[in-house]
Amino acid sequence: MKSQRNLFFRPDTIFGACQGMADDLGISPLFIRIPLASLILVSPELALGIYAALCVVVLASRMLFPVRKAEVAVAAPAAVVAAPVEAANEERELAAAA
Question: Of 28, 32, 37, 64, which cross-links 18 as Cys (Cβ 3.0–4.6 Å)?
Answer without folding.
Answer: 32
